[in-house]
Design brief:
The protein is an alpha/beta fold and 381 residues long. It has eleven helices and 17 strands. Helix 3 (162-172) crosses helix 4 (188-199), helix 3 (162-172) packs across helix 10 and helix 6 (235-242) packs parallel to helix 8 (280-288). Its cofactor is Zn(2+). Residues 8-369 form the Enoyl reductase (ER) domain. This is Glutathione-dependent formaldehyde dehydrogenase. It comes from Microbacterium ureisolvens.
């Protein structure tokens, strides 16, 4: 089969790999119809995440058709069209029983924090991802869901991570009616979070980024006020001025490991790999939220040290809430919002790229060319 393969930092290509096989009776093999490149994939592409091995296939957002099932699979059959959450989870361990699907112990037992994720290095289990023609789906009775007939394919695709994660970020922010929410980052997850803040009852939503085209998208898609941090002297002071001197009620970090805005932090993390991620956006969130406020962290960080302003968070009495999103928990509510016309996740998609051209797709996305927001990979194109 054809699949994206990692060849080292900034080097990916489409090449032939052996087709995946049923390895356990509860496995399924899915033929991928649509996949996506996520901002988190860029952390792998840039060499930010540990134990990313040559030959690994990325891609934790994909939908497709079931081509083969293991002997114990009961909930799926050959021919079913499925959407697959990025979390790989068993559904029965201590953590899964509590709805913490992203922290499943049985799919990544050597890790002390994260569970399994498709295509996200061997630190999350080493499972190949969906930027390929075929993918092995473990615990097929638990994770995948059949795509409802009234949910468009591209909307379903974005619910496998980006939109579900943004929605979860807004949930974690614990927004009270009328609250002011500030979202750092106008990528797909940040845009989804900003739009979702309105659904949680926010009275005002502000999005911070530095790219004009992404800020325009935040105005159009998320109906948000915007601030370009590169155009103001001190983004924290600017946000305090916009909120009567107190700060926002809640803040969402939807940037993560490669945040711009502070040269030394960016260099030590993104270039020298001395930190698990540039904490710029997270520190801005901590400093710009009011005392007693809430910070929700959706941006991906590595397991290494990061220079986070934890003392500021403690002394301000902040609540910090974070996790990888338990994607499937979000689907019933998101389906209803789509059916009611409140959301159309596919409006975030700007590029559709054949699998053969995936190296170019990564380059465009990494370099923020051609006003790219969300690229989709089409294996059959």
């Amino acid at each position: 089969m054809k699949a994206m393969t990692y060849r080292g930092p900034y080097k990916v290509r489409a090449e032939s790999k052996p087709e995946p096989k049923i390895e356990h009776p509860n496995d399924a093999i899915v033929r991928v119809e649509l996949a996506a490149i996520c901002g988190s994939d860029l952390h792998l592409y840039h060499g930010m995440m540990p134990d990313t091995r040559v030959g690994h296939t990325f891609g934790h957002e994909f939908i497709g058709r079931v081509e083969q099932v293991g002997g114990s699979v009961q909930n799926l059959k050959v021919g079913d069209r499925v959407m697959v959450p990025f979390n790989i989870y068993c559904g029965s361990c201590y953590f899964c029983a509590r709805g913490l699907f992203s922290n499943c112990h049985n799919v990544n037992p050597n890790a002390t924090a994260i569970g399994g994720i498709y295509g996200y290095s061997h630190s999350t289990g080493g499972y190949d991802g969906g930027q390929a023609e075929l993918v092995r789906v473990p615990f097929a009775d638990v994770g995948p869901g059949i795509i409802p007939d009234d949910i468009p394919d591209e909307d379903a695709l974005l619910l496998t991570d980006a939109f579900s994660t943004g929605y979860f970020g807004a949930q974690l922010a614990d927004i009270a009616e009328g609250d002011t929410a500030v979202v750092f980052g106008a990528g797909p997850v940040g845009l989804a979070a900003a739009r979702s803040c309105w659904l949680m009852g926010a009275g005002r939503v502000i999005v911070v980024d530095h790219l004009d085209y992404r800020l325009r998208k935040a105005q159009e898609f998320a109906l948000a006020e915007t601030v370009a941090f590169s155009q103001v002297g001190d983004i924290v002071r600017e946000l305090k001025n916009m909120t009567g001197g107190l700060g926002a009620d809640v803040a969402v970090d939807a940037v993560g490991a490669e945040a711009d805005g502070h040269v030394m932090q960016h260099v030590t993390s993104a270039k020298l790999k001395l930190q698990g991620g540039s904490p710029v956006a997270l520190n801005w969130a901590i400093d710009s939220v009011r005392k007693g406020g809430t910070v929700s962290v959706m941006g991906a960080y590595g397991p290494m040290f990061s220079a986070v302003r934890f003392g500021d968070a403690m002394n301000k009495g902040l609540t910090l809430r974070m996790n990888q999103a338990p994607v499937k928990r979000q689907w019933p509510r998101l389906f209803e919002h789509i059916r009611a016309g409140h959301l159309r996740p596919s409006e975030l998609i700007t590029h559709r790229i054949p699998l053969d051209h995936i190296a170019e797709g990564y380059h465009i996305f990494s370099s923020k060319l051609d006003d790219i927001i969300k690229p989709v990979i089409v294996p059959a194109a």
